[in-house]
Design brief:
The protein is mainly alpha-helical. It has helices at residues 7-17, 40-43, 53-87, 94-125, 135-143, 147-169, 177-206, 210-246, 252-275, 278-287, 289-298. The structure holds fe (ii) ion (FE2) (2 copies).
Length: 303
């Protein structure tokens, strides 16, 4: 299973990359609200032909706010998961201890980064955007599952983050440079997290019985369904935020069309891009080949 991933390699890459939140946002570094924040592959607003270009951009920015809040939310449970895992691995391989603590430190930094961007967004956008939560409840629910079930769910999140940047952002010259910088810096560190979480999942799975492995994949599906429920609720919030921001009264059919488009786009952003990621599926297959088939069968509903 991806034998080229090592704790030492991930730690060295991470130490070379290291950036500070203060270098990325604040002072002169402001969001430019004349530009879109999200790549169209994730925002999917242009298909709403009854919106003007400015309205499409506003909806795109609302999806950007939702992205900031969603990552703030999921990283709230990734951080304690990694800390708990590191706590049980404090002796033995020095590179492993340092790489895991670095991983945790980076997720704490990402929580701070997404929070700072949300503050900048709220200061400049002009109207309020609601978001699901509270994060505490989500964290409690997710962490009530087995270490392997949560680890697989986190692996999905790490790989999907990489895909968002590589496929939609890296070569995109239309986006607000500040928002693009956020996605780039996040990607730089998440690149190590995919490797470290693959090593974590592999180590945890090696100690599991086949019954525990079956249960972990069931939990992955449960956590996904929980997230999908949140996505449905958030879709309503995004549409409400759009109407507040633009003062546009959508007709019943326009509102239905927008709701369906945002739901589809959110499912692709947070579920489909992870479930169909080649490297995620490779790791899943190594643990349980039938689980890969099951995930591939479920995936079209979120793509
Ligand atoms: Fe992160
Ligand atoms: Fe991460």
């Amino acid at each position: 299973m991806q034998n080229n991933y090592t704790y030492q390699g991930a730690l060295e890459a991470s130490e070379r990359i290291g950036w500070r939140v203060e270098d990325i946002i604040g002072g002169e570094k402001r969001l430019d609200f004349t530009k879109p924040f999200m790549p169209e592959s994730l925002a999917q607003v242009k298909r709403l032909s009854f919106l003007t270009a400015a309205e499409q951009r506003t909806l795109n920015q609302i999806r950007g706010h939702e992205y900031l809040a969603m990552f703030g939310l999921v990283e709230e449970f990734i951080l304690p998961y990694v800390v708990d895992h590191a706590r049980s691995q404090l002796s033995g391989d020095d590179y492993r201890v340092r790489a895991l603590l670095q991983f945790a430190g980076e997720e704490a930094k990402h929580i701070h980064l997404f929070k700072r961007f949300r503050q900048e967004f709220e200061a400049g956008f002009g109207s309020k955007c609601d978001f699901i939560g509270p994060a505490e409840d989500v964290k409690r629910f997710v962490l009530s599952h087995s270490p392997l079930g949560v680890g697989i769910s986190i692996l999905h999140i790490e790989w999907m983050t990489l895909r968002h940047y590589i496929e939609g952002v890296r070569d995109n010259q239309d986006l607000d440079p500040q928002f693009k910088s956020l996605l780039k810096h996040h990607w730089l560190e998440e690149s190590q997290h995919t490797k470290l979480d693959t090593l974590i999942v592999k180590a945890v799975a090696a100690d599991c019985t086949s019954k525990e492995i079956d249960q972990a994949f069931q939990e992955y599906a449960e956590i996904g369904a929980f997230l999908d429920n949140g996505i449905k609720q958030q879709t309503e919030f995004d549409v409400e935020s759009f109407m507040n921001a633009t003062s546009r009264n959508l007709s019943k059919s326009e509102r239905e069309e927008m709701t369906a488009a945002v739901l589809k786009a959110m499912r692709w952003t947070y579920l489909g891009t992870g479930m169909t990621h080649r490297d995620f599926l490779t790791t899943v297959e190594k643990i349980k080949p039938e689980a890969r088939k099951q995930i591939e069968e479920m995936a079209p509903a979120f793509c």
